[in-house]
Fold:
Amino acid sequence: MATRRSDPTRSPQTPTRTPTSPPGHVPGATPTQTAAKAPAKSSTKAAPRRAKPVQAAPPAQTAAVSDDQRRAMIAEAAFFHAEQRGFAPGGEVEDWLAAEAEVDALLAHSNGVRQ
Structure:
């Protein structure tokens, strides 16, 4: 019978674990000898978690604009239209109508109204 050579880097007292063994496993040892004890579970059961109720988004704040404020906004926009065309005479009505359409579209969009 052939004699087995001992590995000088391994001592006979230190058992080895196989690569497929879980960490802490020692061949031939019982699980209570090698595994660290898991913390005991508490005897009280936690209440089941409940999902928070979904809250609806608050309604969008609609900005109420008076007729005077609307007219001032249109006048300012008409001024910028006139400025873009160099304040040439004869285009005031077109500037006003274009500004009125822009302001009304802006107010409708800010109030959530689709055109």
Notes: The chain is about 35% helix and 0% strand.
